[in-house]
Give the backbone structure.
Amino acid sequence: MARGAIEIRRAWLGWTAAGFVAAVVLVPLGAVIWQADLSGQALTADWAAVRFTLLQATVSAFTSVALAIPVARALARRRFPGRGLLITLLGAPFILPVIVAVLGLLAVFGRNGLLNGALGWIGVAPVSIYGLQGVVLAHVFLNLPLATRVILQGWQGIPAERFRLAASLGMRPRQVFRVLEWPMLRAVLPGAVMVIFALCLSSFAVALILGGGPRATTIELAIYQAFRFDFDLSRAAALALVQLVLAGGAAALALWLAVPPGFGAGLDRVVRRWEAERAGLRLFDGLAVGLAAVFLLVPLAIVFFNGVSGLARVPGSVWEAAGVSVVIALVSTSVTLILALGLARRGEIWGYLGLAVSPMVVGTGLFLLINPWASPIALALPVTALVNALMALPFAVRVLAPELARVEDDFGRLADALGLHGWARLRLLLLPRLRRPLSFAAGLTAALSMGDLGVVALFASPDWATLPLQMYRLMGAYRMEAAAGAALILLGLSLMLFWVFDRGGRVDVDA
Amino acid sequence: MRHLLVAAGLMTAMAAATVAAADTPVLTVYTYDSFVSDWGPGPAVEKVFEQDCGCDLKFVAAGDGAALLARLKLEGARTEADVVLGLDTSLTATAAETGLFASHGRSPVVDVPNPVGEPGAWGDPLFLPYDWGYFAFVHDRVKLPNPPKSFEELVESDVSIVIQDPRSSTPGLGLMLWVKALYGDKADTIWEGLSDNIVTVTPGWSEAYGLFLEGEADMVLSYTTSPAYHLIAEEDDSKAAAVFPQHYMQIEVAGKLAASDQPELADQFLGFMLSEAFQSLIPTTNWMYPAITPAAGLPDGFTAPVAPDQAVLLPPEDVAELRDEALAEWRAALSK
């Protein structure tokens, strides 16, 4: 009896969190379904957006993964100075604001960028970064590191003994690939492709800047346009429904393929590979890592250098926007942490609801719900913080759940026996032991929220903005120097928020 | 140095704004991005108007012209806007249907060539014109010495262009109506032909013109008067407008919101808009023909390359009827 009462009390936070997430996701979804204009006419006009969304996500996912394979293999079997740093940096694009990445890519691949400058020298016609190729380029830039880390984990999962055995059997690289590496890749690749496909399905900021035009519009962008260009709510809702089916389906499939979280531990181990000790393969691996590093680092280096010179040209509005963004990031971080703590034990699945709905879908639903009663514009700040919190929740739950399970397994019975439950259990048992994953989750959430350009574009009024939105406005008004300065501030704040939280969790933690 | 001055100016303006914010009434004017940029009419207009309105004139950049209207529909009667400046006659019929605008009660005589009605008289009860121009593709004379001279030639050529989205931008809408007015049922073939010339479609004029200046395309949809900006402000005569057999016209208008909490100030602003002080700023800040020619006449570069009989303009009511059909054609042709 007594145990039952404790269970109920312990479940309280979980149920509240699950109920809250369900309410803020499902109620807006209900509004979307209610309002959706599903007449054939509305959807025919947007068929191109559906086609483009699927096409770009497919091409982006396969390209990212295909390019990641040689890079991951090289990292798995070579030891070189800076290897550890490079692997750490591969985790960075996850918290890199998308709009900053796009600005860097424009500086390299734009008409006046480095690449076209070089092509001009050798007399080759310039290439355009706009349209499908640009959208795919940006998605590969953002997801190649993720794919590399996931695949690298696969490689590291192959026991070193197997490679030793293969070497003693005198296997050639091709045979090692067939016997050891291919089975691993076959297990890992579908999940990696699916996760990146799902992420690219809800791409907004990339398509907003590099897409454009009916030929290169994603569904997320089309929802935004239905609001901002036509103010056609029923079409926005219809599009949101389509997006829900596509992105929700893809997210479910990606979860089902059960991909390792990819934040990974133990990526610093190099397995000696006897069969790969040949000059040709060494050169190939060197090229793979070198090209990937150049591809990933040069745009960021340009953002940094242009940003430093642009800092002086940054208008006051940028600093105001930075303040707004920091506040939103802190609010969404608190919300995410509380929800993640509540859901990590039994309600993991509720946490993943955020993956199934895209920001524009929830945004559309919230707009429809708020509009009859109050000005959605006036509520832009809390709505943005809430949606950002929901979007970061899956990652936070993913980080917290295994750690919480471990703590409960180790100490749960003792705590139960001591009658430690509710707030006391949280304060005395869980929080101290979850400090590291909690801080990591907080860092991720804060950085993701800081850099997000999504639902805020739907709600913001013209006289205030978050920093990514303000940066986008500066780019649109052709104030590239100010935009470069804003990019540097945004990048700095995102990394700093991540660092402060993540560090905060490590300082004086014993073991 | 120039930027230091701009920064100093901004600081002064901010300081002044803080002082003025005490209890002076605020007149909020929604407009498009380029109007409020440092080199646009916004700063000068604000300074002159605030000299005797006893108010704080607040310009809010809310996207390009057509997006302005969507923004107003989105905000509805709750909008903070008192005046909207930057719609054009292609949007006025739809804008009137929203019921958000109030009558201006004026009947000005304007110097706007009117291909569809009496020149001089202005009959729209809700919207007043402040400037006008002809849409044209602008190119760099050095990089592209022989620009196409018609849509057919443009379709045949491999000249790259940047255009604006007709759903969010008045130039984009103007181009769509230009093609529709000239080619009617065959407009979609023109668009299909243009689709491989189009580098990208931007939401507004500013983005497109920025991309053109960055060198991302050979030509950009802008105005016959755009080269005058480079000529006068930058002493650069390399930009030119490609002359087509016919050019679509744009008449830019402003209107007062019915829900405005400053109706008198809004009226005062609309009156000021048609005054010599405002109109004389237009040519060299907005780079358009003023609605009422200033006493000093027009600067160089405004000698029209387009004769009145080359001008095309669909009446507002026809636009309201044609828009959806033309838009569907545009989207279908460009998404192939």
Q: What stands out?
A: Chain A has one domain: 2-504. The mean pLDDT of chain A is 86.
